[in-house]
Fold this sequence. Notes:
- The protein has about 230 residues and is an alpha/beta fold.
- It has 8 helices and 6 strands; from the N terminus they run H-H-E-E-H-H-E-H-E-H-E-E-H-H.
- It has helices at about 1-15, 20-35, 70-75, 80-95, 130-145, 160-170, 205, 215-225; strands spanning about 50-55, 60-65, 115-120, 155, 190, 195-200.
- The relative contact order is 0.16.
Amino acid sequence: MRSAARALQSLEREIVTCRACPRLVAWREAVAADPPKRHRGEEYWARPVPGFGDPEARIAIVGLAPAANGANRTGRVFTGDRSGDWLYAALHRAGLANQPTSTHLGDGLRLDGVWVGAVVRCAPPANKPTVTERDRCLPYLVREIELLPALRVVIALGAFGWDGVLRTLAARGDAIPVPKPRFGHAAAVRIGDLTLLGSYHPSQQNTFTGKLTEEMLDSVIVRARDQD
C-alpha cells in the first residue's frame, strides 16, 4: 500500500499544476481574486483540487467538481462548504472519519477506508463544466481509481457523478451494462470488480428541500461500508 500512496501523491502533484482548460483556469482564478465578503482576506487555493483520503480505501466517493468558494478556496475536496459539512458528518457517523467537520487543510481530518474525489477538478462557472472539460479531466479519475488497490465500492453523488463514474469504468476497460444503468438515490449496479452506488448530491438544493435527508445519506454510506 505504500507504493499506492506514493503513486497517489505523484498524481496529486500532476493534478494541481494542470491548466488544460482555459475557461476553468480563468474562472477559478477570478473567484480567488474577487471573493465574496465573507471570505475577503483569505488566501484561495485557486488550483485544481486532488482527491483526498485513505490510500487503502475500500470506498471511493465521487462528486461533480470543487465549489468556487469551497474546495477552490481551501484546497481539499468537499471542504469549506455546506455539501462538505453534510458529507463528512455522515462519514463520521459511519465510523469512517475521525471528526465530523472539514474546514481547511491541516484541520486534522482523517478518513478510514474512504477516498473522496470528483469528476472535474476545477471549479466551473455556474457549477456546470462542459463536456469537453469533463472529458479532459476524466483520466485523472481513471488513474485514481486504478491506484486504489483495495477499492470495492464507488458512491456517485448526483447524476453527473454517476455518469462520470460510468465513463471512468468504461475507460479502464470495464463492460458497462446495456442499457446504461440509470442514476437514482440508492441505485446499485455491479460493474467488473466494483459496486457502484448512487446518492443524491448533498448540495443545499437537495438538503434544504428535504430531497436528501441525513438518514438517506447515512443509508448509502453504511451500505457501502458493509459491502462484501
